[in-house]
Amino acid sequence: MRTSVLVSSAVAMGIVICSVSAWSDTAAGLDAFKRKDYQRAFEEWKAAAEGGQAEAQFDLGLLYAQGLGVHRDLTAAEQWYRKAATQGNAEAQFALGLLYSRGWGHPRDEADAIRWLQMANSVDSEGPPMDWTPLEGYGINRNPRDAVYWLSQAAEKGHPGAEFELGQFYSSGEAVKRDQAQAARWISAAAAQGYTPAFKDLGERFATARGVDASDKHAYFWLTLAFLHGDKSVEKMRAAEAGKLSASDVAAQDHAAQNWKARPFPKPH
Fold it and tell me: What is the spatial distance between Cα 156 and Cα 138, in angstroms, rounded to a whole number?
């Protein structure tokens, strides 16, 4: 019995040591990335990724997708994203879903890449903000069905970007049965977590009764929230919705939007 306890303790200690080592690799890689030492970041993350560390696998995929510290290779990015995604990493599931959705995949710039990496490697990660720029001609074909599958995996974990993208698939009916109510549910979930592209979409839905019951108050609220977050394209529709409300209702919704706070996705216990 004593031997068993000692062996168990040794195994447990080994797991802890391995975990610390893997985290050290990802942290050192992120530090190198911030210094623009991409080759060093690649070396740090490669060791941890090959050891099965999901966050490092995602990080390595991002380097391949971005072409930093290594020749740009979306096939390799796809492979590393998939390794992390199959381990349940929501950021990788989201990235893989977008890769299949658009046929490309990398953050828009280095600052955006750092935000992705910081969120992906955070213990309390809720998923990075999403703002990608198209990258064409690097060998990854669109695959809407696989996109829906991986986006669903991430969305079920509460990833707001994945929720929004999944909502778009249900709205268009591509690769899934068209269902505006289901689209509205996913887009509403993303909006509730503060995912800004969802604000406009949800406001328009309340204005046109697309997947939700028509509500001028709700339409004005979400369009105002989009406007406050810099989306000036909603100004005309927002003004039209304001014209349907009383002055007191407009003031109340303005106040609500100005004081609104995102609701974090509840963590599993």
Answer: 29
Task: Considering only residues 198 and 132, tell me which one the structure prediction assigns the higher pLDDT.
Answer: 198
> What is the number of alpha carbons within 13 Å of residue 130 lying toward its C-beta?
24
Instruction: For residues 231 and 187, give the distance between their C-alpha atoms in angstroms, rounded to a whole number.
Output: 17
CA distance 70 to 204: 43
- Residues 173-199, buried b or exposed e (16+ Cβ, 10 A)? eebbeebbebbbbbbbbbbbbbbbbbb
Residues 175, 80, 125, 67, CA torsion sign:
negative
d(CA 90, CA 88): 6
Name the one residue in this structure whose structure tokens are 């979930």: 189
What is the reported pTM? 0.79
| Distance (Å, whole) CA 245 – CA 222 | 14
For the chain, the 3-state helix, strand and coil shares in percent, each to the nearest 5, are: 70, 0, 30
Rounded to a whole number of angstroms, the distance between the first and last alpha carbons of the chain is 33
Three-state DSSP class for residue 132: strand
* Chain mean position to CA 142: 19
Contact assessment for residue 169 and residue 128, using Cβ atoms and an 8 Å cutoff: no
Residue-wise pLDDT tens digits, 187-227: 999 999 999 999 999 999 999 999 999 999 999 999 999 99
Closest CA to 224 of 193, 202, 195: 202
Contact 163, 195 (CB under 8 A): yes
Q: Taking a C-beta distance cutoff of 8 angstroms, is the pair 55, 120 a contact?
A: yes
Lowest mean pLDDT among 71-75, 174-178, 229-233: 71-75
Give the C-alpha distances (Å, rounded to integers) separating 152 from 58, 99, 211, 269: 18, 14, 19, 21
3-state secondary structure of 268: coil
